[in-house]
Amino acid sequence: SYINMPFKVHGIPAFQDNYIWLFYLDETGLTFVVDPGESKPVFYFLYKFQLSLNGILVTHHHPDHIGGIDKLLERFSIPVFGTARIKQATKVIADKEIISLSGHTFEVISIPGHTYDHVAYYSVEESILFCGDTLFSSGCGRLFEGTPQQMYASLSLLSALPSSTKIYCGHEYTEANTNFAVMLDPDNETLKKYAKEVRILRASNKTTLPSTIGLEKQINPFLRSNKKSIQEAASSYIKKPNLTTSQTFAAIRKWKDSY
Ligand code: ZN
Ligand code: FE
Fold first, then answer.
1. Do residues 61 and 85 touch, judged by C-beta distance below 8 A?
2. How far is the CA of 133 from the centre of ligand 2 (A)?
3. Which residue, of 90, 149, 168, 257, is most buried by count of CB atoms within 10 Å of its CB?
């Protein structure tokens, strides 16, 4: 029986490199998924562990994050948490809203940049963050609908969370991200050690997630745009001296797009 399982998060791989995060709640056995881009692997997981599904949380509207919702709703009559842009949302959420999932609370944090209405879900009690395509391990999402300033502000909100916060992001992009980060920040020993661990994990097809806020602050160049080493690398890339934090962030985001 799944009753009495502790709060547990499972990554269900989807497509090439997405994760659909599924979590159980203490004692109640209630099960939720975040960003079900596909229904099939979710149905399979639920069947394998004899679980039901009690709700869906959505970070943003991209197809690889919502594509499985309709099929899941055909089988389960459950709430869908998302912004007004998510057409299946039954609980339209807004910045700073506290949502209660059977006694467990999550805070909605607006983090525009990847899309203008992207949100994260943060649980203080469990110290976990579901952040979609905004913060990746050693990287960040592309700027489809936001300015570099907006994205940097969003990432700064996330990096202000406690260091122990576990990061569950939408994609397994860590290895490509660390390759880019090591090129930018070659004297960062913590990063180089992490990059090596990541290579080993990925060589045997293991997940690199969750990361933590504390680790990302040490290794993620996009959270380190205020550091001299990153600013100098960005400066040599765009051939302009003395970049501000915001100019540095914009330059390395652009660089990563074509790397
Ligand atoms: Zn996306
Ligand atoms: Fe995505």
1. yes
2. 6
3. 168
104 close to 25: Cβ distance less than 8 angstroms = yes
* pLDDT, position 6: 66
pTM attached to this predicted model: 0.96
Could you count the other beta carbons within 10 Å of the beta carbon of residue 250? 21
Counting ligands in written order, the one closest to the CA of 118 is 1
For residue 62, how far is its CA from the centre of ligand 1 (angstroms)? 5
d(CA 169, ligand 2 centre) in Å: 9
Which pLDDT score is estimated for 103?
78
**Span 156-202, pLDDT tens digits:** 999 999 999 999 999 999 999 999 999 999 999 999 999 999 999 99
What does the pLDDT look like over 56-114, one tens digit per residue?
999 999 999 999 999 999 999 999 999 999 999 999 999 999 999 987 899 999 999 99
Q: Around ion ligand 1, which residues have CB less than 5 A away?
A: 62, 133
Take residue 249 and report the two structure tokens written for it.
Answer: 């962030």
Give the model confidence (pLDDT) of 114-162 as tens digits. Answer: 999 999 999 999 999 999 999 999 999 999 999 999 999 999 999 999 9
Query: Which ligand has the nearest atom to the CA of 62?
Result: 1
189-197, Cβ contacts within 8 angstroms, sequence gap of 24 or more: 190/218, 190/219, 191/138, 191/218, 191/219, 194/138, 194/219, 195/138
Average pLDDT, the chain: 95
Q: Ligand 1 mean position to 2 CA, how many Å?
A: 32
139 membership: H or E segment, kind and range: strand 139-140
From CA 62, how far away is CA 137, in angstroms rounded? 20
Interval between CA 170 and ligand 2 midpoint (Å): 6
